[in-house]
Amino acid sequence: MGEKQNIQKIQPYQRLASYYDDLMDYIDYDIWVDDIITLMEPHKTGDDWLDISCGTGSMALRLAHLGKSMTAVDLSPDMIEIARFKATEAQVSIDYGVADMITYATDKQYDVIINLHDGLNYLLDDDDIQRFLDNSYNLLKPEGILLFDVVTPLLCQTHFRGYREIFNDDKGGYERYTTYDPESRLAESVFTLKTDKDDLVEVESHIQKAYEQQDVESFCKESEFPWWQVLDDETLEAGTDKSERYLVMLRKST
């Protein structure tokens, strides 16, 4: 994209929602689902599941096909609109809604809550992470499981320092530029998107924070959950300082 005189800042995933599935096309959701089912099997969890921070619903769709009774929420109404369309096209029943992962409230309780694909990394403050864990604890049935993933500084250092991507299509496409600051551990992805006006572009800024294993362990210890595991997402074995992403499982008390 060439230089533009006018920049209009918009909310995260306001325009990018329509590109999200293209942005995530490198992910094998079937493997993710297989891993989740493998991790849940020893716990004999029930079928009432919540996908919190669900994006465009790709994971919820696959889990619904496996017989899970899915509720799925996301902060972005544009993401939820696409997720609902995908569920309708697939003729799958999923209870979708627009909600914040920290404050989502319902009278229903769940056997499993998942929050995957960097959702927790959007929480930049330790207090917000504790609020998320507390809220999830309250939303779970006794012995229910919370599963979330966490991107580490190693992943950001390896893949996101000065990362640039250009994607073009008939809607205009986007330019992405991602920077990572090792001191603050903040990664910022700026997406510049064309509009129907030659002198105007729209810009979405997405900021995430990377967390070390000791941070994750501390969050778990300070939560109400009496049991947890921090796993490497590739091996499903105990996480190490060589892990680029952790899978974190926490189980509620009886």
The run of helices and strands is EHHEHEHEEHEHEEEEHEE
Whole-number total of structural domains: 2
Biggest sheet character: 7 strands, mixed
Question: Under the CATH scheme, which architecture of the largest domain would be assigned?
Answer: 3-Layer(aba) Sandwich
Q: For the record, what is the CATH homologous superfamily label of the largest domain?
A: Vaccinia Virus protein VP39
Q: For the terminal residues, how far apart are their CA atoms?
A: 56 Å
Please tell me the overall pLDDT.
Answer: 94
CATH fold description of the largest domain: Rossmann fold
Portion of residues in beta strands equals 25-35%
What share of residues is helical? Answer: 25-40%
Shape: globular
How would you portray this structure in words?
It is a single chain. The protein has a 7-stranded mixed beta sheet, sandwiched between helices. A 5-stranded mixed beta sheet has the order 1-10-9-8-7, covered by helices on one side. Helix 2 crosses helix 3. Helices cover about 25% and strands about 30% of the residues. It is an alpha/beta fold and about 250 residues long. It folds into 2 domains: about 60 residues; about 170 residues, Vaccinia Virus protein VP39 (Rossmann fold, 3-Layer(aba) Sandwich), CATH 3.40.50.150.
